[in-house]
Prior knowledge:
The chain contains 4 helices and 19 strands. By secondary structure, the chain is mainly β. The strands form 5 sheets. Strands 9, 10, 11, 12, 15, 16, 17, 18 and 19 form a 9-stranded mixed β-sheet that branches.
Amino acid sequence: MKALLKSGDTEKIIFFANVSRQREIYILAGNYLQTLDWRNNSDIMKNIITFYNKSKAFDLLAMFYHACADVEVDGQPVTPAGLVYVLLNKPKDAITTASDEKGRRTVLDLVDVQGAEGEALFPVGRLDRDTTGALLLTTDGDLAHRLMHPRYGASKLYVIQTAKAVTPEQIDALREGVDLDDGPATADQVGYVDTKDKTRIAMALHEGRNRQVRRMLEALGHEVVALDRVGYAGLDLTNLRRGRWRRLEPHEVNALRRSVKLKPIVF
C-alpha cells in the first residue's frame, strides 16, 4: 500500500507500530491518518528518513519492516533508506561481480560503502576484466533492471586503442553495421579521438552485448589493446581517477531514473 503525504501542512510525521497485535503501522501527518498493513513480516528496522519541501526539512523516525512501503510526498516517491548509487572508475583486472570463487579482486572490493541494512551494492551490467572505466553500482533494483534492459538503450561511450590503424572505410563499416555471431551490431557514433592517431577511436553504443566492442573490432581484423568506457547513461568520469569511486548527486540519480521512465525521488 502506498502512503500519500503532503509536505505543505506537515510539521511532524510519527510512525506507530504494534507488531505483536496487529502488524500495522499508523502514519499521522497533521490531520492525515492512514493505516498500512504489513501482513506477515516480523522483522523491524529503524531508520531516519529526511523529507524535504521547498523551504525546510524535517526528520522522520520510522519503524519499518524489511519490506518497505512506497511513500510519496506531493506525488513524488521518497528514496527508501539504504538506496545507494555509486560511480566507479574501474581499473584493469577487477572482476565485475559480487564475489569470485578464485579469490580475484572484484569491483566491490574497491567500493567501501553498503546499504543501510548492510546489503552489498551490485554492478549495473558488466565490464570485462581487462576493460576499464565507468561502472555504476547501486542497491536500487528497479533502476538497475531498466538500465540493463535493451528497451531503454542506456548509452555507453568507449575509447578504444587498437594495435594498428583503423581506416576511414572501417569507421564507416562500424557505423553501418558489422556482422557478429549473434546478429549485426551498429555503432551509434564512431570516430577518431585524434585524426593524427588512427589507432584510437571513440564509439558510442546503446546495446550491451557480451564483449560487443571487442568483437566488432575483431570482425574487422583489429586487436583491441585497451578499452576504456568513459561514459555511461549520461555519467562521465570527470575528476574521478582510476580505481576511485564517488556517490551520485541527487540530480544525477533522478536524471537516470527519468531516462528509463521511473519517477524521480525526493532525497
